[in-house]
Each structure stands twice: as C-alpha cells, then as structure tokens.
Design goal:
Strand content: 15-25%
Number of domains: 3
Order of helices and strands: HEEHHHEEEEHHHHEHEEHEE
Distance between the termini: 48 Å
Helix content: 40-55%
Number of helices: 10
Shape: elongated
CATH architecture of the largest domain: 2-Layer Sandwich
CATH class of the largest domain: Alpha Beta
Radius of gyration: 29 Å
C-alpha cells in the first residue's frame, strides 16, 4: 500500500539527513527541517516550486533528482557531473554524486548526495527523493592528507633524482672509464698470454654488464625521456625495456589525441605504469603484457593487462598492505593523489588487469 503524503512527510521530516522530494512535474513536495538548516531556505519557499535549484546552484539547471525523474542517460548525468557520479550500489535506479557548492555558507560546502526514484505500486514513476550529506569536514581532512602525501611523494622523487644524478656523475663515469681503459689494454695486449687475455675479456664483459645495470638503475630512478620528450615516449621505452630484459612480449598502444600534463602528473602516471610492470616482472610469470594509454575529454585512462597467474584480490583495497600488496598500495595512493579511480580485475590463473582513470 503506497505511503500517504502525510506519512512520507513525517518520515522525511523526522530524519536528520537533509532531504527533499519532487513529483513527476519536478515540483517540490517535501523539504525537511535538516535541509532548511543546510540551505538556509524554509520549506514554505520551496513547496510546489520547480525553481528550487536556486537553493544549490547560481543558475537554472537540473538537480540529480530532476534527472532521475526525466530518466536521464548516464551520458546526460556525466555532462553535469563529469567523473563525479556513480550508480548506487544499494538502490536500483539511483545515482550518487560528490560535488562542491560554493553558495552554501561563506566558504561553500562539499555534499554527498543520492537521488532515488519513487514509484507507485504498478511501477510508474511518481517522483524522486534526494538526500544530501555534508562531507566538508571529511573533504578538508582528505585534502590535508593529500597535501601531505603529495609533499612526501615529491620529496621521494627529489631524492631519486639526486641519487640518479650522483650515480651518473660518479659510479657510471668510473665504470665507463674503466671499461674504455680495459678495452684499450686488450687491443694492445702488450704480449699478454692467452690465459690472461681470456681473464681480462671476462672482466671486461662483467664490467660492461655492471655498467648496463647501473644505467638501467639510473633510468628507473629518474627517466630522462620523461623530462625531455614527455609521458608517451617514456611509457613506450618502459614497456620495450620489459621485453628486452625479461623476454616478456609487450604491446603498447595510444588512443585519442595525445596531450601533455603538468610534469608532476606525468611523473605520477609514469610511476603507476612502472610499478605495474614491476609487479608483472616479479610476480606474474606472464608471457604477454598489454599497456594502453587513452586520452579523452575527461583526462586519461591507463590499462595494464597481463596473462600471468593472477592472485586472490582482497575484499577491499584498504587491506592491500596487510596482504603484502605494497606495490598496488603505492599505485592506489598515486591515483588518489591525482583524484582518479582505480579498478583491479584478477584471480588465480586469470591474469591481472589494472584500470586507472585520472581527470584532466
């Protein structure tokens, strides 16, 4: 039996969660006390009005509840809340969004809001209800943590850069000089017997291998290609090196119109792919890896997919450190710093696919 308007009003008004209801004509039928406190607008000013959006926006536009009533497509919702909405995991036909509202209070407020359809017993759409939660304090804490992690990450990168420069200017130069001197010695031989020449050749070979290892270490610490040519050439070189050193067949593809990001963003994106490929090299036992970089109007999407042994994914990504998935945890932190999203699809014997989307 459908709820009466009075019963619905009692339920909504008795809730501590700011809420409003609109009918199929997009007119407000309920505006509870908690929402009065949040918006500073009394229900008497809103009931029966279809111009209630002024409570949230400086210009006329649909709310999430309006789009539910209008049966808006995902693309239409995306146009108003790019990269900030998702389908509700709990309520069929409902959507959730987190967004900032500068007009609410002196400094504005962050709100998490959910809009759900209201239907009659025969399944006919009769309206929508939208609930709003003030998450400003949580967002401020997140921003403080993001700032701290950003500074820590940049400090680590500066340390990597310093070590790479020292290794290049010191160790690599010494090993390179020794290799050239030994090469000159072997060319002249100076009457050395064959056994000594053979030993010197072995030393020369090991010295060159050591030099290559140091150069590869320097490259991993601070990729010069990234600074000189940008993200895509650096990613292409990174994937090629996996094939050269590990024998893993690699494929690298680029989709969309290539664009440049801020240096710190490109560095973080590079590290995400680098750590993903390190996981493949160390743990996956894969024979093929596919890396894709897709540019779109909303930013960039990175995909790293291997055909390796996969693993049992923890129930939530928050437990990654306790499951010794520190590499994945580092990737997740970098994605979070970029304001992006991460998805991991894997299972024993099923390979692993990492999907990362970051906003422009």
């Amino acid at each position: 039996m459908p709820l009466s308007s009075k019963t619905l009003a009692k339920i909504i008004d008795g809730s501590a969660v700011p809420s409003f209801v609109i009918n199929q004509d997009h007119k407000v039928t309920h505006w509870n006390t908690s929402l009065e406190a949040l918006s500073g607008i009394k229900r008497e000013q809103m009931i029966g009005k279809d111009s209630y959006t002024k409570a949230f926006y400086s210009q006329k536009r649909p709310t999430l509840a309006d789009m539910i009533v209008s049966r808006a497509t995902s693309q239409e919702i995306e146009n108003y809340y790019p990269g900030r909405y998702r389908e509700s995991p709990l309520i069929e036909g409902a959507y959730e969004v987190e967004d900032f509202f500068p007009g609410l209070s002196k400094n504005g407020k962050w709100l998490h809001f959910t809009a759900s359809p209201l239907t009659s017993d025969d399944g006919k759409m009769i309206g929508a209800i939208e609930t709003l939660e003030d998450i400003t304090e949580r967002k401020e804490l997140e921003n403080n943590l993001r700032y701290f992690l950003h500074k820590t990450t940049m400090a680590h990168e500066e340390e990597r850069k310093y070590i790479a420069r020292e290794l290049h200017d010191d160790m690599a130069q010494i090993l390179g000089s020794l290799s050239r001197r030994l090469d000159n010695l072997l060319r002249r031989e100076h009457g050395l017997n064959s056994a000594v020449v053979s030993d010197l050749n072995d030393i020369h070979l090991q010295l060159n291998q050591g030099l290559k290892s140091v150069q590869r270490f320097i490259k991993n610490l601070r990729p010069s290609l990234l600074d000189d040519l940008g993200l895509i050439p650096a990613l292409r070189s990174l994937t090629n090196s996996l094939e050269d050193t590990e024998g893993v067949i690699t494929y690298f593809t680029v989709k969309g119109e290539e664009k440049r990001f801020e240096p710190e963003v490109e560095l973080s994106l590079f590290r995400i792919v680098q750590e993903s490929l390190n996981n493949v090299r160390k743990h996956a036992e894969a024979s093929e890896v596919h890396v894709a970089a897709e540019f779109n109007g909303n930013g960039m999407r990175l995909t790293v997919r291997d055909n390796g042994r996969g693993f049992e994914l923890p129930r939530t990504l928050d437990t990654l450190p306790r499951n010794d998935k520190l590499g994945l945890m580092g990737i997740r932190e970098r994605v979070w710093l970029l304001g992006g999203t991460i998805e991991i699809n894997t299972g024993p014997g099923k390979g692993t696919t990492l999907l990362v989307s970051v906003p422009a």
